Predict the structure of DUF6671 domain-containing protein.
Amino acid sequence: MHPYMGKKAVLSTMHGKQQAIVQPFKNFLNVSIQVPNKINTDVLGTFSGEIERELTPIETLRKKARMGMEELGLPLGIASEGSFGPHRYLPWVAEDHEILLWIDEEQGIEVIEHEVSVETNFDTKIISSFNDFNDFLDKVHFPSHALVVRPNSGIIPGFTFKGLKRAFEVKEAIAICSSASADGLVHVETDMRAHMNPTRMKVINKLAEKLAVRLLKLCPDCSCPGWGVIDVVRGLPCEACGLKTKQIAQEVYGCPSCNFKKEEPRQDGVKTSSPTYCDWCNP
Ligand SMILES: [Zn+2]
Ligand SMILES: [Zn+2]
């Protein structure tokens, strides 16, 4: 029997992420996710910047997960963080980088999974009046996705309006922020909090499945949950000349608890590289 079968785990969230995470954990692991009522993850920083994030994303995740584990007194915890910005290779496209952390205090392990998706409405615009930005509203899927409005000149306490889903609220917030802003302009951005952003919720759901599936896999050596890819080996041979390229040749599987590792062929079955990536054929 899997060690997590029938167990409870704490999800530290104020933003309804249970919507995306409960089901995969139920379906794959039969783990029931509990959400503490009294928890303020905003003290660790907010997207809209009223509280600066001082920790790295992984440190933030650890703190967040532990807050919930302490609150409910459970040894299993989960927390999620997202960051948004230009795509690494396609800077004109926005990307959503989601991280999910699992802590198992009894086994003394952490398991981390990532998901990078270009399915995101992440965007910002600086405007002077509401009439400026109908195209923007369509593009960011307003009103199914909420907006954040603040003065363009900087953050002024009490002048960040979040979770705006009605045109009249947006209009009002724009009027207030424009008179509060030193330059008269207003900074509008997509509200990236999960409960305000169904597109992000979908990405978190996909990632939760990935993590649940990974936790389902046990280490072949010590039977600890969380067996999965921890590294890659480059050197996929070029299909034209046979020399090694920088493309991934093998995936390295590892255990979060012991040092056992195993190299496996790529999951996608690719065995050779296109000469495009070969330093010899295409220098
Ligand atoms: Zn070659
Ligand atoms: Zn192991």
Observations:
- Residues 44 and 53 are 6 Å apart (CA to CA).
